[in-house]
Amino acid sequence: MSRKVTKAIFPVAGLGTRFLPATKSVPKEIMTLVDRPLVQYAIDEARAAGITEFIFVTSRGKSALEDYFDHNPILEEELRAKGKDKLLETLDATNMESGAIAYIRQHKALGLGHAVWCARRLIGDEPFAVMLPDDVIAAEKPCLQQMVEAYEETGGNMVATMEVAPERTSAYGILDVAENVGTVVRARGMVEKPKPEEAPSNLAVIGRYIMGPSVLYNLNHMKKGSGGEIQLTDAIAEDIGNGVPVFGYRFKGQRFDCGSKAGFLQATVSFALARDDLRDDLTRYLNDIVATSKAAQ
Ligand code: UTP
């Protein structure tokens, strides 16, 4: 099997309950860090890694996501008439070529593993990436690109991994490490959301994966796992038992958990501070509120 990765699945069919009431009508992936929706960061990262086919697993109420990738002829005409070329360029970068993007429905939120399985007919017999747009990773070289380069050497299955505080293991898939060779870690097992006292390590799986089609075969007969959901972690772990290696890749970069309110706010501040047009005002504001709160103490 070739190790060239050109397809990516974006599972975005979750309910986004941590952001209710906003997510009652706005898909979580459309929420913006400064002025770009979360999904745009994921698409840009995928493109940088050489992805040319983008498969979204969506659900009821996600039509704003489909509209986002469409041309908006009325808006474009207005901007053209007003000579707003810079804004036109900004819009242009969000358009997808015809046929590059596909939408599949997950009819019931049965879990991440089930969402990925819903896209099986569009994958065929080749490796593919899975990207969770609510994990936003700021990195000099985009995270998926780092992984695609490493995957060309290793093959097998690869998951992005990072160390988390030992008391936080129950929020993540956790690697059972067989061999730790610097950036790449070979796993002998994976456990979804273990209690800290049962966790085999504190190396957590983050929302970037490169997998072979065998994981999709495993999902054909998957049963409910942790939290009563069909877990992607379980299907990847099954591959280890079948002799397909699974590697954790310690990416270089800073990951923000934009599926949580605290992570989303931290990402907003961090991305705003990275912008020339916002840095000075925001820094002044942050310094002021820190000084005021210190004075009040
Ligand atoms: P989360 O665990 O963050 O769940 O899913 P969620 O529904 O998005 O958010 P909360 O926890 O209710 O606030 C991780 C990723 O898996 C997708 C989600 O859309 C998100 O990108 N997912 C999860 C699905 O596509 N389908 C599912 O059945 C579950």
TrEMBL record:
<dbReference type="Pfam" id="PF00483">
    <property type="entry name" value="NTP_transferase"/>
</dbReference>
<protein>
    <recommendedName>
        <fullName>UTP--glucose-1-phosphate uridylyltransferase</fullName>
        <ecNumber>2.7.7.9</ecNumber>
    </recommendedName>
</protein>
<keyword id="KW-0548">Nucleotidyltransferase</keyword>
<dbReference type="InterPro" id="IPR005771">
    <property type="entry name" value="GalU_uridylyltTrfase_bac/arc"/>
</dbReference>
<keyword id="KW-0808">Transferase</keyword>
<dbReference type="InterPro" id="IPR005835">
    <property type="entry name" value="NTP_transferase_dom"/>
</dbReference>
<dbReference type="InterPro" id="IPR029044">
    <property type="entry name" value="Nucleotide-diphossugar_trans"/>
</dbReference>
<dbReference type="GO" id="GO:0003983">
    <property type="term" value="F:UTP:glucose-1-phosphate uridylyltransferase activity"/>
</dbReference>
<dbReference type="GO" id="GO:0006011">
    <property type="term" value="P:UDP-alpha-D-glucose metabolic process"/>
</dbReference>
<feature type="domain" description="Nucleotidyl transferase">
    <location>
        <begin position="12"/>
        <end position="268"/>
    </location>
</feature>
<comment type="similarity">
    <text>Belongs to the UDPGP type 2 family.</text>
</comment>
